[in-house]
């Protein structure tokens, strides 16, 4: 039997002790210790923006020793937001089956006098100009809200209609519960088409005329804790100017692709209109700007290193919203540093960038949260359960066939040259018995469209001789692979009755009309 000599035992023990000390040294603090410092006023709190320089000067280990909490903040449009409301029982009681607040429908199919109002729900009378987000802001401001509720009536809930006016103080509960907020990152948006697009990313100018983006970059909550070590179910946060909580993962939580999301909860009665603002996006509708921030306790140097993320470290994609598809093409990758510079390069063209979120308000939130912690008004917490880190967001399962333009378009399409006389165009339209004639240049590229109505006006005015003088130059088009639903939307939103179908070279390969789509819809039913 081999017997280890005493000096060797002492040496081995020393090595193990030193190793354990290094391992233990990695965990600098506990939540209990940090909250103790908050309680006695000795806590060192900095914003994520300030942490960049601290880590740069002291290194991750030095910063972990010096800093206890890093605060973050973001203020942007968070469409997936809403509020649970409880109104109390009326006399006689009513079980509300449908309800409108300032003419905006709220979902009330959960109980007698509970309802959930979503930020993007539109007013029945004002349309896109007023929606659920505006109702929520009105409540936060203490404004009066008109309520109309209806019910079929039952033995225990005999009332069938109720009309009343309330404000937030009349409600038993007004609980903000946002299914999906604070994306880990957002894609940037641009538009390659020849007409302006109105989207939830704002107005996108034609021919990649601008790029819009969202997110707070260096202050972004989830980018400062990318592994979700301190952000999870139960984490205490700043929400709308008061304390709130992370309920868990948000809908469409997709960390595998870098798009983690959070479900958030807070008391609307305690929130401030400084951080809860309604907005209307032209052509899209209402959304709710929500101010939120998360304090990140610096428990070890790995967390310290993560909170030193910079705008130049955060990369996202610039997507072409001109392609009406779920899978929009990526034109390039870009950093938030580039986006915040004011312009980026797309295919050799300098394109201006503009934020859809407010970095100024994000900074205010990070600093206000910092002050709360310094004053002993806010204590940090660890999650009771960590967020999933390997899930992905799947596309909707579609069991019915999704027809494309190529399936219904007319391939037997006649075109006319732009330098032809309009009498020639009139002759073609009469012979072919159709109302729309695509106009092409010498290279057979689509440059316009002329209709029977255009020719009638030209004949009446007797002012022009050539097709190019009377044609419509801004042509709304379709492509063969486009979903018919997209083409139907284009026809309706542009108030036109036909779309030339073009390939990638702008050569006309067909035409689709409102009649073609009507016939398809008739077959569906």
From TrEMBL:
Keyword Transmembrane helix: no
Pfam families assigned to the protein according to its UniProt record, in alphabetical order: CBS, HcyBio
Gene3D superfamilies: CBS-domain (3.10.580.10)
GO BP annotations listed: methionine biosynthetic process
SMART domains for the chain: CBS (SM00116)
Entries under InterPro entries matching the protein: CBS_dom, CBS_dom_sf, CBS_domain-containing, HcyBio, MA1821-like
Domain of life assignment: Archaea
Domain CBS: 409-466, 471-525
Annotated keywords: Amino-acid biosynthesis, CBS domain, Methionine biosynthesis, Repeat
Alphabetized SUPFAM superfamilies for the sequence: CBS-domain pair (SSF54631)
Protein name in UniProt: Inosine-5'-monophosphate dehydrogenase
Native organism: Methanococcoides methylutens MM1
């Amino acid at each position: 039997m081999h017997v280890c000599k005493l000096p060797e035992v002492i040496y081995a023990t020393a090595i193990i002790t030193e190793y354990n000390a290094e391992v233990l040294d990695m965990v600098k603090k506990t939540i209990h210790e940090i909250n103790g410092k908050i309680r006695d006023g000795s806590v060192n709190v900095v914003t994520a923006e300030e942490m960049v320089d601290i880590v740069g000067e002291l290194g991750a280990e030095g910063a972990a020793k010096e800093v206890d909490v890093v605060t973050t903040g973001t203020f942007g449009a968070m469409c997936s937001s809403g509020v649970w409301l409880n109104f109390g029982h009326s006399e006689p009681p009513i079980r509300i089956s449908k309800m409108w607040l300032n003419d905006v429908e709220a979902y009330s199919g959960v109980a007698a006098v509970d309802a959930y109002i979503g930020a993007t729900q539109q007013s029945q009378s004002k349309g896109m100009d007023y929606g659920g987000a505006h109702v929520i802001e009105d409540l936060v401001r203490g404004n009066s809200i008109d309520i109309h509720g209806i019910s079929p009536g039952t033995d225990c809930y005999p009332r069938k209609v109720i009309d009343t006016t309330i404000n937030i103080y009349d409600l038993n509960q007004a609980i903000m519960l946002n299914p999906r907020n604070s994306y880990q990152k957002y894609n940037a948006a641009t538009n390659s088409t020849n007409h302006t697009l109105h989207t939830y990313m704002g107005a996108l100018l034609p021919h990649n005329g601008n790029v819009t983006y969202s997110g707070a970059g260096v202050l972004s909550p989830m980018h400062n804790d990318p592994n979700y070590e301190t952000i999870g179910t139960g984490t205490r946060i700043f929400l709308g100017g008061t304390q709130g909580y992370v309920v868990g993962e948000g809908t469409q939580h997709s960390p595998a692709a870098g798009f983690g999301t959070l479900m958030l909860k807070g008391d609307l009665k305690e929130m401030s209109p400084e951080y809860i603002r309604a907005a209307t996006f032209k052509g899209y509708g209402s959304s709710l700007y929500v101010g939120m921030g998360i304090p990140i306790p610096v428990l070890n140097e790995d967390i310290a290193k993560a909170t030193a993320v910079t705008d130049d470290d955060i990369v996202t994609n610039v997507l072409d919203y001109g392609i009406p598809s779920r899978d929009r093409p990526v034109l390039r990758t870009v950093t938030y540093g580039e986006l915040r510079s004011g312009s980026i390069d797309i295919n050799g063209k300098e394109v201006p960038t503009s934020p859809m979120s407010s970095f100024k308000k994000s900074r205010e939130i990070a600093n206000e949260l910092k002050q709360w912690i310094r004053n002993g008004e806010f204590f940090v917490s660890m999650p009771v359960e960590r967020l999933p880190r390997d899930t992905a967001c799947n596309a909707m399962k579609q069991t019915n066939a999704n027809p494309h333009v190529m399936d219904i378009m007319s391939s037997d399409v006649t075109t006319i040259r732009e330098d032809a006389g309009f009498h020639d165009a009139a002759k073609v339209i009469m012979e072919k018995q159709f109302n729309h004639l695509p106009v092409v240049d010498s290279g057979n590229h689509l440059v316009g469209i002329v209709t029977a109505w255009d020719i009638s006006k030209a004949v009446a005015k007797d002012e022009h001789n050539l097709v190019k003088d009377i044609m419509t130059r801004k042509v709304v088009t379709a492509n063969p692979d486009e979903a018919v639903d997209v083409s139907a939307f284009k026809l309706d939103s542009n108030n036109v009755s036909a779309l030339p179908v073009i390939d990638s070279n702008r050569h006309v390969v067909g035409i689709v009309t409102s009649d073609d789509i009507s016939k398809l819809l008739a077959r569906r039913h």
